[in-house]
């Protein structure tokens, strides 16, 4: 667990899924937590219990298994309200659409050690549900933070970008600094990415980016 | 589905230029033949052919012609 930054008065904890290095972010405040892209992580559960968390607002940047695999576990432990795009909600109920059904197969070309780790994380029948969905944009207040959600299809059908207080941006896999966005997975769409996501990236000036993989960074401006 | 259409579908998931694949193309010679391509092929088989195919079986294939055969079975 790493506490990297603060957003307003909230510590941002990052928990990394082994092998694939997907990020789960946890912000806490009194008895409530805001969680982005949960996977099953016992250190994260310990943190939430230690801080006396009762309620979790869960945001999913997109529908892929490595970004949703902890939703059901969280629901068992805490009262959760899961928010994602309408398209994401349609995919996460189907293991073949979220990639859960084939998650382990994504690593067939990796080392046997990594395949063994992944075997324990994979669940070919995994599915979960959203409590609230939206199309286009949605904003809400979580504690003292202004949260804005924007649909961002391209990497996947149900991708979204999450803004907090305008300058803290959770990009999921739609933007990973220094890496090429993957646009050739089932459900990816290059044209959507060019038309709908690229214009959003231009708004990322002087922002702190919390990507779906890799380290968060401060970004002065994006060069294309 | 004819061979031309199959090759086109494979070129799409491998993201290679049109008309660059032939049945004789060896998969291991293609940089684009990676984990994502493998998963995309599984999804293609599901979506276009209604077949569930195991990743291990896809990984065993050596050439584009082998993949085209799976698209026929």
Describe it for me?
The complex is a heterodimer of chains A (224) and B (73). Chain A has 224 residues and is α/β, with parallel strands linked by helices. Helices cover 24% and strands 32% of the residues of chain A. Chain A contains seven helices and 13 strands. In chain A, the strands form two sheets. In chain A, strands 1-2-3-4-5-6-7 form a seven-stranded mixed sheet. The model of chain A has no long low-confidence stretch (mean pLDDT 94). With 73 residues, chain B is mostly helical. In chain B, 55% of the residues lie in helices and 0% in strands. In chain B, helix 1 packs across helix 2. Chain B starts with a helix and ends with a helix. Classes of the chains: A alpha/beta (224), B mainly alpha (73). The interface between A and B is medium-sized, with 14 and 18 residues.
Would you summarize the structure shown here?
The complex is a heterodimer of chains A (224) and B (73). Chain A has 224 residues and is of the alpha/beta class.
Q: What form of chain A results from the Cα inertia axes?
A: globular
Distance between the termini of chain B: 12 Å
**Whole-Å distance between the termini of chain A?**
33 Å
Tally of separate helices of chain A: 7
Low-confidence stretches of chain A: none
Q: How is the quaternary structure best described?
A: heterodimer
Q: Order of SSEs of chain B, N→C?
A: HHHH
Strand order of the largest sheet of chain A: 1-2-3-4-5-6-7
Shape descriptor of chain B: globular
Largest sheet: number of strands, sense, barrel closure of chain A: 7 strands, mixed
Radius of gyration of chain A: 16 Å
Which structural class should the secondary elements of chain A be placed in?
Answer: alpha/beta
What is the mean pLDDT of chain B? Answer: 91
Describe the structure using short key phrases.
heterodimer; A: 224 residues; alpha/beta; six-stranded mixed β-sheet; 32% strand; globular; B: mainly alpha
């Amino acid at each position: 667990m790493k506490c990297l930054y603060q957003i307003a008065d909230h510590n941002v904890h990052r928990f990394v899924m082994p092998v694939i290095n997907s990020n789960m972010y946890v912000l806490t405040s009194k008895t409530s937590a805001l969680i982005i892209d949960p996977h099953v992580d016992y250190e994260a559960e310990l943190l939430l219990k230690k801080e006396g968390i009762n309620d979790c607002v869960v945001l999913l940047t997109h529908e892929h298994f490595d970004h949703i695999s902890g939703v059901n576990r969280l629901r068992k432990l805490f009262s959760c309200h899961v928010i994602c795009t309408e398209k994401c909600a349609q995919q996460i109920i189907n293991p073949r659409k979220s990639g859960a059904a084939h998650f382990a197969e994504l690593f067939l070309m990796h080392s046997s050690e990594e395949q063994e780790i992944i075997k324990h994380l994979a669940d070919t029948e995994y599915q979960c549900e959203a409590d609230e969905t939206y199309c286009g944009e949605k904003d809400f207040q979580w504690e003292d933070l202004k949260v804005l959600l924007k649909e961002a299809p391209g990497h996947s059908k149900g991708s979204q970008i999450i803004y907090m207080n305008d300058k803290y941006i959770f990009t999921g896999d739609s933007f990973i600094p220094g890496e090429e966005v993957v646009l050739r997975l089932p459900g990816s769409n290059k044209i959507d990415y060019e038309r709908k996501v690229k214009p959003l990236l231009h708004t990322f000036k002087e922002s702190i980016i919390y990507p779906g993989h890799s380290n968060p960074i401060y970004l002065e401006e994006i060069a294309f | 589905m004819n061979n031309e259409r199959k090759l086109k579908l494979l070129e799409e998931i491998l993201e290679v230029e049109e008309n660059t694949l032939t049945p004789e193309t060896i998969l291991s010679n293609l940089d684009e033949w990676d984990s994502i391509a493998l998963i995309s092929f599984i999804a293609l088989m599901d979506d276009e052919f209604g077949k569930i195919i195991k990743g291990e079986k896809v990984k065993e294939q050596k050439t584009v012609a082998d993949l085209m055969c799976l698209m026929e079975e």
